[in-house]
Design a protein that fits this description.
Elements (H helix, E strand, L loop, with lengths): L11 H50 L19 E5 L5 E6 L13 E7 L4 E7 L3 E6 L4 E5 L4 E2 L1 E8 L2 E11 L4 E3 L1
Antiparallel strand pairs: 1-2, 1-5, 2-3, 4-8, 5-6, 6-7, 8-9, 9-10
Length: about 180
């Protein structure tokens, strides 16, 4: 009987080559996934901002009373609700417009909530800065201003802190239309 000279199987070189290819492909997939996660974080932050602007609008539509226990406002219906934003911040303010000037003033209006952006995202620019988007009840009229000038549109640009080229823009116009681009 004749012996089989060659055994079937993999050589060490073939095995190492296969492992190397798997490691390279896994690394590429991991790095791509990290970039996608950052992009989704930025998109989520932009959508959350748009949602919070709509929340202020809805609060004005329903003539919602201020939360009980809120200083100067608790249980009363304010003259409006709004969002206040500044460039370079990692948060923005949802406020009750107590004095009715349709602009956020820290001495006259009440902060309902300071809303942080997701980690790694900041407000790159607000046009103009600072910006107040205010809704006056009962049929919420939209007023966009920087305190002295009333505008037709407000533009908020969010950016990834780790990559300033990755941005999302939220636009709000005086008719209440909110767009995320």
């Amino acid at each position: 009987m004749e012996e089989n000279k060659y055994q079937k199987g993999f050589t060490l070189v073939e095995l190492l080559t296969t492992i190397f290819i798997i490691v390279v492909l896994s690394t590429i997939a991991f790095l791509t996934n990290r970039q996608n996660i950052k992009q989704y974080t930025l998109l989520r932050s932009a959508n959350k901002l748009a949602q919070d602007i709509r929340t202020a609008q809805q609060m004005a539509m329903t003539t919602k009373t201020c939360p009980v226990g809120t200083p100067y406002c608790g249980g009363n219906i304010p003259k409006g609700y709004g969002i206040y934003l500044e460039s370079g911040r990692i948060d923005y303010i949802l406020y009750a417009d107590i004095d009715g000037d349709e602009y956020y003033d820290s001495s006259d209006d009440v902060i309902i909530q300071i809303i942080p952006l997701e980690s790694g995202v900041e407000i790159q620019s607000v046009n103009p800065s600072p910006l107040s988007i205010n809704y006056k009840p009962p049929d919420p009229t939209t007023k966009i201003s920087n305190g002295s000038i009333e505008l037709d549109e407000g533009i908020i640009t969010l950016v990834l802190q780790s990559d300033p080229l990755k941005t999302k823009t939220v636009k709000v116009n005086k008719f209440g239309l909110i767009q995320v681009e």
